[in-house]
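Dear Dr. H.,

I hope your travels went smoothly. While you were away I took the liberty of generating a structure for the chain from your last submission, since the lab meeting agenda had it listed for discussion. I wanted you to have the full record in hand beforehand rather than looking at slides cold. The sequence, exactly as received, is reproduced here:
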Amino acid sequence: MLRALLAVLLLIGLHSPAHAQTGDLQTILQEHQAQIVKPSRSKVAPAIEALTASGLPEVPLFLEDWRDKNIWVADDGLFYAISGDTVTDITTRTDVAISKDTLTQIRPNGGVRRVINEALVQFQLSDPDITRRTEAVDAIARNLSPDQIAPLSGAIDNEADPALKLRKQRLLNYLTARYGDSTEARIDAIEALSSDLSVEGRAVLSQILSTRTEIAQTAPDGANIAGQLTPGEDLPRLAAYSQIAQAADLPPVLSDTDIRSALEQHVDGGKVAGVSVGTLSDLDARLTAYDRLSAEGTLPPRATEDMISQTLAGYTIFEIYDEPDAAITDAARTTQKAVNTRVGASQTADLALDAISLASIYFLAAIGLAITFGVMGVINMAHGEFIMMGAYTGFVVQQIIPNYTVSLIVALPLAFAVTFAAGVAMERLVIRHLYSRPLETLLATFGISIAQQQLAKNIFGTQARPLTSPAWLDGNLAFNEVISISYIRIAIFVLALIFLALLLFILKRTRLGLEVRAVTQNPRMAASMGINPDRIKMMTFGLGSGIAGIAGVAIGLYAKVTSEMGADYIVQSFMTVVVGGVGNVWGTLAGATMIGTLQKGIEWLNPSNTLAAQTYMILFIILFIQFRPKGIVALKGRAAGD
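The corresponding predicted structure, in token form, is as follows:
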């Protein structure tokens, strides 16, 4: 009864007074009994039209039951709905005392069910349930049909959901652009598509501008010609002739292989059509033999070069719009050009956003390495493992604190503390004994990185661990249908800006920063001024490691946390530092921007091969270093000459 009540309320707002009820549901079904009992896609339309035009509140429920194979017919021709073993009257929806065994089930095939679904759309567009309204709109979007214009336009004003209402308006504009009643209405709808960058809107324009190929000696009368194809320019001469030959039933172009195969079947006494087999290695001899056989009627004729030239001179290949109205195709062509321009600009902007986002990730991953490398000259191959340690710290915090926002707030400083302590321990236990010995330092840190990876596998296993972002970081910030960026990427970008400002403050406004810069410029002079270089190097190494830990938390929010995740960033981090300029914050920012932009640009040019993109990027970096070995922003002072 509730379904029947909803259907009554639905149809009150859907049908106009012109859709007067012409009888009860059973009467209409009896009039179209043959089409309903044994339905087919080609014959069921009159029955569907009669049902939808009746205005009866029982129609939507009947159509649903018919589609779902819940309608049965009795020997007297009356129809019933069955759910389980319960037989109900299709008009009153009350149970009736009829045995199911005396009824015959109606089984519409897939094609008929699609027709029924299309009819149900007009009822579902105004259904109280937003899910059903959305499904109806999705059905229209999948198959734009002119008969959906009226129900869709009638379901817009009363739509309560703003997003769904906007989508209905867009679909109505698509339908009007393709199937509007007048040229003026269609042109207005087409021009409105100039602000629509969606795939659906662009598809509508492409469908309006669809063409077919026709071949004729003169231009077809009244045809809306898109252009003509010139042999030798727009398509190869032989391809053009082949199209004409197929349409005009002319001799085909035969390849040399076809000619050889045909001649092999007609060898007689060491000759083919009077031509000695020994001379058939010559092309002219083969053609002579084939043409003689063709003249005798033994082989079908072939297209000669003269025939091809004469045919191409006498025929023209036209591209003709399927849309006959030239005014509409002119409007669609102009709109499509404007849309393509906007799409191109938006794709460029979207690519720039991706590049900035990737640059911020590389900056976070590399800034700690830039500090340690610049101050200490240590090639730390274990830097990526500090990123991994920070990510695992965030994972552990989330296991203890289920609130993702709170856990993120706790994880960032805790990751800094953990990796800071690990960095200090590494510097005190290993690095301090290997200063001025770069090869031994590289080997030692590489061994430490392998040990850290194995330790992480022993503790957390080899399976990737998720670092879940808070709900307020879910989704994307969309500027239009082409330009969008995830909120996680925005958060990482903001975090990179915060660290840039924080590092600049530390290096320029604090005593620690002054001492770090002094040690960077001239360690011996700094020591003579009372600065302890060993302490500064320890603090600097710890600071760089701590920043890597925070970067690990940020990176883990959108990438899986594994024991090998640090290895994915160590190469890019070193390239960022070297390209930007060793020991310089601004240089690291410039290097990250350059590498991020370069990588995204190469991936855009070659999207199917990420490994090739990275290879090209490394080659470019090598060439860049040859011309600017000190990086984009080189150090000044005595350290620049070291």
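Two observations you may find useful: The radius of gyration is 38 Å. Residues 326-376 form the longest helix (51 residues).

With kind regards,
E. W.
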